[in-house]
Amino acid sequence: MIKRCFFSKILLLSLPLFFSINLLGQTAAQDSAFIAKANEEPKVEHSPKKATLYSTFLPGLGQAYNKKYWKIPLIYAGFGTIGYFIHWNNDNYNIMRQAYLDLTDGDGPYGIEDPTNSYMKLEAAQLRDLNNPTYYNNFKTGLDKQQSYYRRNRDLLIISIIGFYGLNIIDASVDAHLYDFDISEDLTFNWQPTMQYENFQYVYGVSCTFTF
User: Fold this and answer.
1) Phi and psi at residue 114, in whole multiples of 5°?
2) pTM value?
3) What's the whole-number mean pLDDT along residues 179-198?
4) Which helix (H) or strand (E) element contains residue 4?
5) 176-181 — which CB contacts under 8 Å span 24+ positions?
6) Taking the CB of the first residue and of the last residue of the chain, which one, N or C, has fewer CB atoms within 10 A?
7) Whole-angstrom distance, CA of residue 160 vs CA of residue 86
């Protein structure tokens, strides 16, 4: 009976001490977690708006903001290629236009002497006798078609370079939206053939499993 009372007293005295140690441990753990959280650097959110504005002001700058540096040479190569063909078509358009104007500014080479002869630099004019009305009319029609052809190509390329500029902005915006997208190894997609028994017959299909 004495031993029983003695152990009961020990137990009663030990309970407050146990709870005090437990509370002290929880408080220390909470304090440590709070300090560790306070010491963490604030996460800088990637802004699609910034990427869009950067690429709007300077093509390729949004891609640099998204750290897709390999796209920058491709963007400027695209602009350079389209710009080159715009210049090439515009030069040929001006040549054909001036040749047409020089050819039609008077009575033609088979009438009074023509003071302008830039069209004579063209190979087609050198291979044909423009004093012949048939050759003259064919050459005149060809110049008209050629200048229309080069003007149309130039205008289409100008439209395409505007579209390419817009594509550069869209690319930067999409990349920025997907910048924080989780593509770690925890994301998996598995598929395998499966067979189920329904309505007294086997049904074959494909089973898809997403793990994230």
Assistant:
1) -85, 125
2) 0.62
3) 63
4) helix 2-39
5) 176/46, 176/47, 176/48, 176/50, 176/51, 176/52, 176/62, 176/65, 176/66, 177/48, 179/46, 179/66, 180/46
6) N
7) 10
